[in-house]
Design brief:
Elements: H1 5-18, H2 34-40, E1 69-79, E2 87-98, E3 101-106, E4 108-109, E5 112-113, E6 116-126, E7 132-150, H3 151-154, H4 162-167, E8 168-181, E9 193-209, E10 214-225, E11 231-233, E12 239-241, E13 245-257, H5 258-262, E14 275-288, E15 291-302, E16 306-315, E17 320-333, E18 337-346, E19 356-365, H6 367-378
Antiparallel strand pairs: 1-2, 1-19, 2-3, 2-6, 3-7, 4-5, 6-7, 7-8, 8-9, 9-10, 9-11, 10-13, 11-12, 13-14, 14-15, 15-16, 16-17, 17-18, 18-19
C-alpha cells in the first residue's frame, strides 16, 4: 500500500488552521476575491454586490444577478505558506450577465478548465516500509457552475409599481461545485476523491438617489453553502462531509453622483465614472458547521477608480482573528469596460506568521454598451 505521510500530516493540520470542525476538500471554503478578503474576510463576500468581478460571485451565487456583460477574474495565493507545505491556491471564473440573469463558469487555468485549484506540488510516494518509490502531482480541483436572476427585472412586464422597478432588486442564485481530489496517489488506499455540492443564495437591494446626486443603498443577503450536505467519496469506501456554511449579512452605502455634481462644469461625455465618491460598510456572520465567525469592514472609493478597504475577521473557535486591509485600482470607462487589480492582507490563523497577502485581477466588458458607443460614432447628428 502506497502512503504519503507528508500529505496526511498536512490534512490533519488543516482543521485547526482553517477553523472548521469537520469537512473534506476545505479549499472550497476559501474566498477567491481580494476585494472581500480586504473588507473583512470571506464572510463579507455574502453581501458584497458591488464591483464587476466574476470572483465576487463565488461567495454568494445571487451576486451574479447584479452583473452586466462578460466578467473574468483570476486570483493566486500562497496557502499555509508558513507551515512549509508550499501550497498554491488559485481561482479563475467567468461570469456572463444580461438583463438581470447571469451564469458563472470555470475558466481555464493554463490549459486546464478549473474554477478552483489547490496545488500541493510534487509529492513523494512511499511503500509499506516508508521507502520512497516515486513521486506524483498532488492537487485538488473544483468546477464552479452558477446561475442567478433578479426577480424584479424578470417580472418587469407584470410589476406595475414604478417604485419597485426603480429602487428594488431581489436576486437569487444557485451554484454547483464538481470536486475532484488528487491529494493522495490514485493507487493508494485513499485514492482519488470525488464529490459535489450545491450553494444557494439571495441578495436584496434598496437604492435611492435625490436630485442633488446623493445616493444611498441598503443590502441584505443570505447564503447556504452545501445546502444538501454533499460529501466526498474516496477509494477506501469512506465518505467525508464537505464544508458547509450558513451566512447572513447586511451592507449600507452612500455615494455622490459624478454626473450630477460635475455635469455643469465638465462635458458629461468626459465623466467616465458613476460615483465621484462612495462609502460602503459591510457586515456578515457565518455559521460553519457550528463554528461561528464574523467579518465586517468598510470601503472608500474615489471616481470608481481608487479604493481603500479596511476591516476585521473574527473566528475565535478556529483561532483566526485579526484585521484586514487592502486597496484596488479599477481602470474603466463608465460601466462599459473595466480592468481592475486588487490587493489584500488578512489573518491566516495560529500557524501563520503575520498577515497573509493576496492579489487578483479582473476584466469586464459590456459588449452591448460597447456596440452602442461605437454606433454613436457613425450616427450623423
Amino acid at each position: 500500500m502506497k502512503l504519503w505521510l507528508t500529505m496526511l500530516l498536512m490534512l490533519l493540520m488543516l482543521v485547526p488552521i482553517y477553523g472548521v470542525s469537520q469537512g473534506s476538500c476545505l479549499f472550497i471554503s476559501y474566498e477567491p476575491s481580494c476585494i472581500n478578503l480586504a473588507i473583512g474576510g470571506r464572510a463579507v463576500g455574502n453581501v458584497n454586490i458591488w464591483h464587476k468581478s466574476a470572483l465576487t460571485t463565488y461567495a454568494n451565487p445571487a451576486v451574479g444577478a447584479y452583473r452586466e456583460g462578460v466578467s473574468w477574474g483570476f486570483s493566486e495565493k500562497d496557502w499555509l505558506k508558513d507551515t512549509g507545505f508550499g501550497l498554491k491556491y488559485n481561482a479563475s471564473l467567468v461570469n456572463i450577465g444580461y438583463k438581470g440573469m447571469s451564469i458563472t463558469l470555470p475558466s481555464y487555468r493554463l490549459s486546464e478548465l478549473s474554477g478552483q485549484y489547490l496545488d500541493a506540488g510534487i509529492a513523494p510516494l512511499y511503500d509499506d516500509h516508508w521507502n520512497v518509490v516515486g513521486e506524483f502531482h498532488s492537487y485538488d480541483t473544483a468546477g464552479v457552475y452558477g446561475f442567478a436572476c433578479d426577480a424584479v427585472k424578470l417580472g418587469d412586464d407584470y410589476i406595475s409599481s414604478s417604485f419597485v422597478k426603480e429602487h428594488l432588486m431581489l436576486a437569487c442564485g444557485i451554484t454547483y461545485k464538481d470536486i475532484t481530489s488528487y491529494l493522495y496517489p490514485a493507487g493508494s488506499a485513499v485514492g482519488v476523491g470525488e464529490g459535489s455540492c450545491w450553494d444557494v443564495g439571495t441578495a436584496a437591494r434598496f437604492s435611492w438617489e435625490d436630485i442633488s446626486g446623493v445616493g444611498v443603498e441598503a443590502v441584505g443577503a443570505y447564503t447556504h453553502n452545501n445546502v444538501f450536505n454533499g460529501k466526498a467519496g474516496f477509494g477506501d469506501g469512506l465518505e467525508d462531509p464537505l464544508w458547509e456554511c450558513k451566512n447572513f449579512g447586511y451592507a449600507v452605502g452612500v455615494n455622490l453622483s459624478g454626473e450630477k455634481v460635475l455635469g455643469d462644469i465638465i462635458d458629461p461625455k468626459l465623466i467616465y465614472f458613476d460615483n465621484l465618491v462612495s462609502f460602503r460598510y459591510l457586515s456578515s456572520t457565518a455559521n460553519e458547521s457550528g463554528d461561528k465567525s464574523k467579518g465586517y469592514g468598510a470601503e472608500w472609493g474615489l471616481m470608481d477608480t481608487f479604493f481603500i478597504r479596511k476591516g476585521r475577521y473574527e473566528d475565535y473557535e478556529g483561532e483566526i482573528v485579526g484585521n484586514t486591509f487592502g486597496y484596488g485600482i479599477d481602470l474603466h470607462y463608465k460601466d462599459i469596460v473595466s480592468l481592475s487589480w486588487n490587493y489584500a492582507e488578512y489573518p491566516g490563523g495560529v500557524l501563520m506568521n503575520g498577515p497573509q497577502k493576496a492579489e487578483d485581477i479582473n476584466v469586464n466588458l459590456d459588449f452591448l454598451s460597447i456596440g452602442k458607443e461605437i454606433n454613436k460614432l457613425f450616427v450623423k447628428r
